[in-house]
Amino acid sequence: MTHDLLRFATAGSVDDGKSTLVGRLLHDTKSVLADQLAAIERVSTERGMEVADLALLTDGLRAEREQGITIDVAYRYFSTTTRSFILADTPGHVQYTRNMVTGASTAELALILIDVRHGVVEQTRRHTAIAALLGVRHIAVTVNKMDLVDYSQERFEALEADFKKVANSLGIEDVVAIPVSALVGDNVVDRSDRTPWYQGPTLLEFLEEVQVGIDPRDQPFRLPVQYVNRPRTAEHPDFRGYSGRISSGSVAVGDEIVVASLRRSTRVTAIDVVGEPTDVAFAPQSVTIQLADDIDIDRGDVIAAVEQPPRLTREITATICVLSDTSISAGQRLLARIGPKTVRVIVGSVVDRLDLETLEHAAHTDELTTNDVGTITLRFADEIAIDNYDDLRTTGAFILVDDQDGSTLAGGMTRS
Question: What is the Cα–Cα distance from 351 to 173, expressed in whole angstroms?
């Protein structure tokens, strides 16, 4: 049996019980240290609570505990006998929607909570839309607080149908709905006898069974160069290697590759992984490769499969989510960071803005502000090598940066 890794992100509106659900998941998988649990029980008793407030396991910041809301993205690590997990616990408040983009950017699955009493609300649509835009392949929608509606099958199935309409409108096909009560643990780790009408998996069973990962052989090779390695030692006077993390695909000694921005092709002569020579390497390994020809490669250049190179362009259309208090508008001069490469860029136009109430792209010619999701065009000062985000998430993503103070303004996904 293999022991693989699943990265997933949680999302839900304020008071949907997300922190309690995550705390329950950690508690019932025995991923909580005894001293942590004792501290939680002590604080809960001081607050007059009869049972441990498992939300305190995840609301780690002092401000979060005092306000009773999640503010920042927190990463939790736990494992079972079959799989390891990295959980990005993201805020539910609309003010911190941008933080969900950060947490979900590397996730393969989004765990979206719905309060059974309130149903699908704007934040549900917002989080689902962001998951779709970020290319998250799987959605587990947990209908929480089932204990407050006497575990009503009718209410659960109505909300399941409502959510699937939203997901389908966004192009998300793999959706599993699970009725849970995070407070008492129904269908989180252990199956509940209070929902005999539910025949699907518990939340943990789904997390353990959902398909994860992509076979590197199914994607084209990409190696964004982070460092040109020229030690110039007596032992290796002519050594020149190109180091970085393979973002997709695989490479073997003897493969023909292309340095995309230079339009130069050559052959791989050697590969090192952690200082050890190997014949084959694949994503997401960090490698140093040597090439047959002496090519003037710099940090940020992309070494790629010769038969499937990235596109070279000076202009793109992209979806962005504004992450700062600085708005994005036509004519702005910014910096774009695409992997290790930084290049000057001008915002050509603001094409549209996603209306998170109707999930329609409304024509929009003004600015995009904090938490807005919309489409823009960008013009780069230099030709860049970039992929469509829908094809390759890593080399199709970028961030927009203030060219004065270096602050991050928006996260972007190349569409065309």
Answer: 27
Give residue 45's Cα distance to chain centre: 37
**Beta carbons within 8 Å of 388's beta carbon, 6+ residues apart:** 311, 396, 414, 415, 416
* pLDDT single digits (tens) 197-216: 999 999 999 999 998 777 77
Say if strands 241-245 and 333-338 run parallel, antiparallel, or are unpaired.
Answer: unpaired
Q: Rounded distance, CA 132 to CA 134, Å?
A: 5
The model's confidence at residue 61, banded by pLDDT at 50, 70 and 90, is very low
DSSP three-state, residue 172: coil
Long-range pairs of 406-409 with CB within 8 A, sequence gap ≥ 24: 406/335, 407/324, 407/326, 408/323, 408/324, 409/322, 409/323, 409/324, 409/326, 409/328, 409/334
Q: Round to whole Å and give the CA distance between 24 and 188.
A: 7
- Domains of the chain (ranges, CATH numbers): 4-209 (3.40.50.300), 216-305 (2.40.30.10), 311-414 (2.40.30.10)
**Dihedral class, residue 359 (left if φ above 0, else alpha if ψ from -120 to 50, else beta):** left
- Give the global pTM: 0.79
Within its chain, how far is the Cα of 188 from the centroid?
Answer: 23
Residues sharing a CB contact under 8 Å with residue 300, sequence separation 6 or more, in sequence order: 224, 225, 338, 339, 340, 341, 342
| Adjacent-strand bridge partners of 257 | 266, 305
Q: What is the pLDDT of residues 292-321, one digit of tens each?
A: 998 889 999 999 999 999 999 999 999 998
Rounded mean pLDDT, 127-142: 89
**Alpha-carbon torsion, ordered 18, 22, 28, 33, to 10 deg:** -140
Phi, psi of 34 (to 5 degrees): -60, -40
Smallest CA-to-CA distance from 57 within 43, 40, 41, 44 is with 40
For residue 76, the tally of other CB atoms under 10 A from its CB is 18
Residue 316 β-bridge partners:
378
